[in-house]
């Protein structure tokens, strides 16, 4: 149950005899998912009719998740596509309790929601203050340590004011900082791919950095601590281009936090929920973690979106995470392969093509000191 939520407003669709007023208000309950997580759902009437809602996991994040809610008689269903979660509950006759089940990743858990009152309502944390647009995008302090060689996978994340990477090579840091695929980096010594580091950095400026600021900070770290010097070139490479499918995209627009960080965190091989993400963010994850070549955004879609992509990976995928994909199962209900899934679920396509592509040629680099 990691990274449950990101801020968004959810459209609530009502059917059957219930009215919007039946479920408007604040609802709260505890989800027991290894640890107790307090869930708050606010539902209010929307401008122009209908209702709108926001769901929060207040022990994990101050931001919400988009949901589509249907009411049929006394049954209330909520689908959180951005995180692959769903809730189904029964409204009691007094209208004050929704007793039901939370399901995420095929793991149903009991959860009941109570209508909150002014006296017992849980406070929703305020979202973090963004870093000023003109703030210096540099680390005030950063520690770099060799990773535990037994650590699987890799991680880039922001927790509070800390920027954290786990099990990342110099090549990983360059691909993140300059939005490249590993095939677009050349000329470096062998250790740039093999030696892994854990990095913890605190920005000099107050607030949470945007993705642009975060990449700029990592670029400065590469210059200051790894003494990276490079030049750019162009080469004809095989790439995947993300384009819109023939029937249009199927993504949910998220207009709530245009300068916030995206949420893209795998929940297993072939399960990628995304919140507040651009198509370029999706391309970045695909080329960094999943596919064997650069991925470019040719969709023409602006803005940010929420979605969940599920597919059955093959042996050519996830080399970027250092993971060996197990053989496919015989499960008839298994999701399709990536190229089919991205078209069926998101309305996008991955087109294989060749194109002149920018490459970064390393001229000089040094192993970093730890502090």
Could you write a compact summary of the structure shown?
With 371 residues, the chain is mainly beta. Helix content is 14%, strand content 41%.
What would your notes on this structure say?
- With 371 residues, this protein is mainly beta.
- The strands form four sheets. Strands 1-4-3-2-10-9-8-7-6 form a nine-stranded mixed beta barrel.
- It folds into three domains: 10-115, Lipocalin, CATH 2.40.128; 139-231 and 359-364, no CATH class; 236-358, no CATH class.
- Helices cover 14% and strands 41% of the residues.
- It is built from six helices and 22 strands.
- Mean pLDDT is 86; it is low at 1-20.
- The longest helix is centred in the middle third of the chain and has 15 residues, at 211-225.
Uncertain runs with pLDDT below 50, 5 residues or more? 1-20
Helix content: 10-25%
Quote the distance from N terminus to C terminus: 33 Å
Tally of separate helices: 6
- The beta-strand count equals 22
Largest sheet features: 9 strands, mixed, barrel
Q: How many domains make up the 3D coordinates?
A: 3
Fraction in beta strands: 35-45%
**In oligomeric terms, what are we looking at?**
single chain
Query: Overall mean pLDDT score?
Result: 86
Please trace the helix and strand order, writing H or E for each element. EHEEEEEEEEEEEEHEHEHEEEEHEEHE
What is the overall shape?
Answer: globular
**Strand sequence of the main sheet, in spatial order?**
1-4-3-2-10-9-8-7-6
List keywords for this structure.
single chain, 371 residues, Lipocalin, 4-stranded antiparallel beta sheet, 6 helices
């Amino acid at each position: 149950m990691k990274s449950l939520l990101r801020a968004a407003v959810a459209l609530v669709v009502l059917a059957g005899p219930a009215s919007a007023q039946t479920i408007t208000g604040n609802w709260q309950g505890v989800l027991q998912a290894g640890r107790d997580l307090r869930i708050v759902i606010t539902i209010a009437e929307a401008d122009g009719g209908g209702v709108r809602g926001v769901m929060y996991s207040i022990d994990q994040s101050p931001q919400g998740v988009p949901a589509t809610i249907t009411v049929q008689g006394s049954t209330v269903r909520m689908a959180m596509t951005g995180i692959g979660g769903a809730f189904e509950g029964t409204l009691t006759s007094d209208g004050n309790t929704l007793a039901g089940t939370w399901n995420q990743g095929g793991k149903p858990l009991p959860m009941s929601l109570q209508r909150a009152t002014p006296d017992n309502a849980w406070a929703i944390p305020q979202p973090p203050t963004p870093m000023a647009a003109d703030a210096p995008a540099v680390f005030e302090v950063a520690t770099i340590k060799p990773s535990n060689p037994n650590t699987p996978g890799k991680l880039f994340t922001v927790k509070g004011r800390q920027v954290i990477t786990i099990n990342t090579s110099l090549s990983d840091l360059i691909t993140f900082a300059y939005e490249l695929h590993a095939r677009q980096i050349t000329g470096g010594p062998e250790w740039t791919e093999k030696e892994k580091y854990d990095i913890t950095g605190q920005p000099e400026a107050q607030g949470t950095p945007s993705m642009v600021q975060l990449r700029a900070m990592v670029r400065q770290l590469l210059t200051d601590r790894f003494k990276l010097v490079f030049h750019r070139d162009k080469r004809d490479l095989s790439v995947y281009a993300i384009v819109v499918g023939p029937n249009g995209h199927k993504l949910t627009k998220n207009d709530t936090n245009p300068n916030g960080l995206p949420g893209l965190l795998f929940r297993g091989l072939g399960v990628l929920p995304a919140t507040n993400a651009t198509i370029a963010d999706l391309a970045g994850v695909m080329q960094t973690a999943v596919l064997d070549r650069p991925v470019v955004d040719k969709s023409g879609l602006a803005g940010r979106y929420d979605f969940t992509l599920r597919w059955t990976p093959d042996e050519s995928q996830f080399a970027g995470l250092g993971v060996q994909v197990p053989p496919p199962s015989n499960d008839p209900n298994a999701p399709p392969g990536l190229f089919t899934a991205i078209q069926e679920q998101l309305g996008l396509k991955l087109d294989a093509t060749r194109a002149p592509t920018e490459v970064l040629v390393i001229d000089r680099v040094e192993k970093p000191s730890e502090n």
